[in-house]
Amino acid sequence: MFRIELEFAAATDIGNVRRNNEDSFGYDTDHKLYVVCDGMGGMAAGEVASSMAVRALIESFASSAAAGESAPVEERLLRALREANRQVHQAGLEDARLRSMGTTLVCVCFEGNRFLVGNVGDSRAYLVRGGMCIQISQDHSFLEEQVRSGAMTPEMAASSNLHSVITRAIGTDSQVQPDLFDGAVEPGDVLLLVSDGFTRYATPELISRIVAEEADTQAACGRFIQYAKDSGGVDNITCLLIRVTSIEGMTAEADGLAPPLII
Description:
The chain has a single domain, classed as PPM-type phosphatase domain (Phosphatase 2c, domain 1, 4-Layer Sandwich). The protein is built from 7 helices and 11 strands. The chain has helices spanning 45-66, 73-94, 142-149, 154-158, 196-199, 204-213, 217-230; strands at residues 3-13, 23-28, 33-40, 102-111, 114-120, 124-129, 132-135, 179-184, 190-194, 237-248, 257-261. It has a 6-stranded antiparallel beta sheet, covered by helices on one side. A 5-stranded antiparallel beta sheet has the order 1-10-9-6-7. A hairpin with a 2-residue loop joins strand 6 (124-129) and strand 7. Helix 1 runs antiparallel to helix 2 (73-94) and helix 6 crosses helix 7.
């Protein structure tokens, strides 16, 4: 039996251009669940969608734990993601002011010595270990899917004006297909959840360097936010950083990242 200890910090900023902040983040430390959402929609609908999705995900996941369910964590997280989608979609149907609202969502939960990332849209999860940073999630965006299919080079995508076109979101349809990714963690690992207001400017090298230089998680979040603002800050910026401080009961090296688990 493993017992994992975590420390975390989060920050969000309106950026340099937008008039309101449609990003939201949340967490449930009892159940070791952390989430970042980036809303979209007219008027204030993006703010509504992102905050609603955060709340619905956390409440649904916690309720299954409170009920003493023995279902695997993958099933419980997937059910919580779909419940978040149902609530956001239903709210859009019931209120004309919120029609067609939606939000990206990226989350991570921990169980034993493993993590499970859930992703819908283009907010991202990164893992930093031993000075190296890798992207765990895969963007559900037009540009990234063009790159993965070979129809576009990364350089072409970087210069495109279609960065905001996403292909999956929470709440825009009655059904949603999240991606799930799992892997093992080691003491000292950092999981980073971020909205695209940061990732449009950042590189894995920048992320790993700031994490290495800042032992304080809140200071690291502040540097991520400031870097995005100094680079243009055209969108809202949110980051949530979780550091694995210890894992009791670990007697062997963690087995590294598992292949993506898609349900």
